[in-house]
């Protein structure tokens, strides 16, 4: 495991990938915090109107920050702690793959981004 010291905060740094791109993150932070520190403020779009979504509540209640982590969809970026070698997908709203965010949130029930599901489909 490659571990270095983050010169700005004195914390260990880990290498992760975000949509296949290598990113250095501070150990012990959440995926959401790592994305925000990289300047990524939204990483999925709502299904019906295409509105950008990212961190909203920051405590795991709202489902706005869903990403795919190591092949597991529907992970809340605000709750998952980064670790060495972690692969995050669906983490950029402006991507050439418009289905990436939808794959990261497939199968989630409830209200997401102000867009309630049709009651008949539940």
Characterize the structure shown:
- Keywords: Oxidoreductase.
- The chain has 122 residues and is mainly beta.
- It has one domain (4-106): 2Fe-2S iron-sulphur cluster binding domain, sarcosine oxidase, alpha subunit, N-terminal domain (Ubiquitin-like (UB roll)), CATH 3.10.20.
- Helices cover 10% and strands 29% of the residues.
- It has helices at 31-37, 100-104; strands at 4-5, 12-18, 21-26, 44-45, 52-53, 66-69, 72-76, 87-89, 111-112, 115-116.
- The strands form three sheets. Strands 1, 2, 3, 6, 7 and 8 form a six-stranded mixed sheet that branches. Strands 4-5 form a two-stranded antiparallel sheet. It has a two-stranded antiparallel sheet with strand order 9-10.
- The radius of gyration is 15 Å and the shape is globular.
- Residues 1-8 and 103-122 have low confidence and may be disordered.
Topology:
Elements lengths: L3 E2 L6 E7 L2 E6 L4 H7 L6 E2 L6 E2 L12 E4 L2 E5 L10 E3 L10 H5 L6 E2 L2 E2 L6
Parallel strand pairs: 2-8
Antiparallel strand pairs: 1-2, 2-3, 4-5, 6-7, 6-8, 9-10
Write a brief structural summary.
Keywords: Oxidoreductase. This protein has helices spanning 31-37, 100-104, and strands at residues 4-5, 12-18, 21-26, 44-45, 52-53, 66-69, 72-76, 87-89, 111-112, 115-116.
Show unreliable segments.
1-8, 103-122
Note the total helix count.
Answer: 2
Average pLDDT over all residues: 76
> What's the main sheet like?
6 strands, mixed
Note the beta-strand portion: 25-35%
Structural class: mainly beta
Order of helices and strands: EEEHEEEEEHEE
CATH level 1 name: Alpha Beta
CATH architecture: Roll
* Termini separation: 44 Å
CATH topology: Ubiquitin-like (UB roll)
- Please estimate the helix content: under 10%
What is the H level of CATH, i.e. the homologous superfamily? 2Fe-2S iron-sulphur cluster binding domain, sarcosine oxidase, alpha subunit, N-terminal domain
Overall form: globular
**How many domains?**
1
């Amino acid at each position: 495991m490659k571990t270095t010291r983050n010169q700005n905060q004195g914390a260990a740094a880990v290498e992760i990938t975000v949509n296949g791109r290598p990113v250095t993150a501070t150990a012990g932070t959440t995926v959401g915090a790592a994305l925000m520190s990289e300047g990524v403020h939204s990483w999925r779009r709502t299904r019906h109107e295409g509105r950008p979504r990212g961190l909203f509540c920051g405590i795991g209640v709202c489902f706005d920050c869903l990403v795919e982590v190591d092949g597991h969809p529907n992970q809340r970026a605000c709750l998952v702690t980064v670790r060495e070698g972690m692969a995050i997908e669906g983490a950029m709203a402006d991507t050439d793959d418009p289905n990436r965010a939808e794959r990261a949130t497939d199968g989630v029930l409830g209200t997401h981004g102000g867009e309630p599901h049709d009651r008949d489909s539940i």
